[in-house]
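Support reply, case 0932

Customer input (verbatim):
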Amino acid sequence: MPSVATAPPLIDPPFGCLPLGELLRRYEDVGEPLACQPLAQGLLNRGYRLTTTHGSYFLKHHLDGDRESIARQHRVTRRLQALGVPVVPPVRDTEGGTVAVVGGHCYALHPWVDGRHRAGAQLTPAASWQLGSLLGVVHTCLEQVMKPVTDRLGHGGTRDVAQAGAHIGAQGSPHGSPHDGTLDGVYASATPADTFALIDELLTLARGRTPGDGFDSLAEHRLLERRTLLERNAHHRPPPGAETATGWVHGDFHPLNVLYRGTDPAAIVDWDRLAVQPRAEEAVRAAAIFFVRPSGELDLVKVRAYARGYRLTAGADAGELAAAVHRVWWERLNDFWILRWRYQLNDRRADPQFPAVSALAVWWTRRYEEVCEAFAG
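Our regenerated output:
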């Protein structure tokens, strides 16, 4: 029987087309490939657990972004690691680079982190405080390692700084990130007229599916419900200049991008959406993902603990969080990214998230004051 070192690679056939040999030759001391298994979680990019004769690695196939922008993200994580932030910078190749371009595709090799994801339901109030504190540390450490951002968008900030983050939401985010509506200014909020037009388009597509299913019925119900809510609340659209203080943010802080070892965060991963944005809005947006229940309600006890941890470490005051709550609430009220993926792109990967996400916008509208108090109280 051949030894482990000379055994043939046990690579799943559908993924055998990965250029593993050419990739691994770029690195020293990573060994020969033994197995390469795709990771099921995640909606963007492709990830694999790569096992070699020298250990395990996370192989990331970047489906978006160019080599230089990915390398910049890698440099940022190295700087953050030096400050004690739990991140996993990639392995350097023999030339000191961190991005391998093979066949026109970008890859990065990271050390494997043994850990697990924890949703808000698995977090105690104390762990929720720890999570908010961690995000505050991320924001304050990014401020140290990145080019200073001294402006407030809409209050004298430069267009170049604003554009550093504006690309993020142009196509909608898999986790409800900003700007599903039009961008008629720097971080402008969605306009009701545009949202009504989108609702009509999505209704036509949902009703036109034959045969329809339960998802299509729920989509139609939620679209009609949301149109009524928008008609009643159109006058609450955040005005220009209502943005809170901006800074560098992770850009996609949610349960699948935080790994825990035991009860402690072990790694924050996936920095592809690193950008300049209103910081407190990332804190609110993340909480709306971590702490949403299947029924579409937020666990306000945990939200309150999380928000206090964030405010303490980030130095954000109650007014900043209240303003962020209002802008993210409006964003969610106008956000239909899951339905756009399903009906416009024929992509159903996000369908399981729709019941809770769509219910949250309705619940949040009805309990607006309580949500605001949990974040800012």
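We compared this against your earlier run and they match. Two observations from our side: Residues 1-15, 152-172, 175-185 have pLDDT under 50 and may be disordered. The first strand starts at residue 10 and ends at 11. Please reopen the case if you see a mismatch on your end.
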